[in-house]
Write a structure and sequence with these properties.
about 180 residues; mainly alpha; Rna Polymerase Sigma Factor, Chain: A; about 75% helix
């Protein structure tokens, strides 16, 4: 490759910032918590900086960066392997390969569809849908505050997730047929 297409130091930073959301989403598909994602992205950015000469072309940044993020997620996974929520390394690799093969923009379309569908729910239902992703025990805390049983909220959560899933599928289908982008 010519040195003209190889990014310089500021170019690498610009590329990282431009693709940070996608790299973060990619890491989240492989890791159980946002804290692990943050730690992994920090480590991956250091590795990218150290290996910046290996990047021959700005157009190749995203696949190159995803490969580095994947290896860093595996390192993170090994460090926290005792966590009961961790997927097997084999499953992580399969998810990484699948995410790497997905066409550019798919994650953005899915994220937009999810955002659109979440807006269709009441504040109460939206809070319940998001509670399991905010912290461990958030649904139980909501149950205690509302005077309901955790089991009843988990049943409601299951029904809401099904409605959300159907909405996202419908929205994505509409988008591919010329609707939401």
């Amino acid at each position: 490759m010519s040195s003209e297409s190889q990014p310089d130091e500021s170019g690498l930073m610009r590329l990282f910032v431009r693709h940070e959301r996608e790299l973060r989403a990619y890491a989240r598909t492989l890791l159980p918590t946002w804290e692990a994602v943050e730690d992994t992205l920090q480590e991956a950015s250091v590795v990218m900086w150290k290996k910046r000469e290996q990047l021959d072309d700005e157009a190749a940044f995203l696949p190159w960066a995803k490969t580095i993020v994947r290896f860093e997620t595996l390192k993170t996974r090994r460090r926290v392997a005792r966590d009961r929520l961790m997927l097997s390394e084999e499953t992580i690799l399969l998810l990484a390969e699948q995410a790497a093969r997905s066409p550019d923009g798919v994650l953005d379309r899915e994220r937009n569809a999810l955002r659109h569908c979440l807006q269709q729910f009441s504040d109460e239902h939206r809070k319940l849908l998001l509670a399991p992703y905010l912290s461990d025990g958030a649904v139980r805390e909501m149950a205690e505050r509302s005077g309901r049983t955790a089991n009843s909220l988990y049943k409601r959560l299951g029904r809401l997730r099904e409605k959300l899933s159907l909405c996202v599928e419908r929205t994505l289908t509409t988008a591919t047929d010329g609707g939401l982008s």
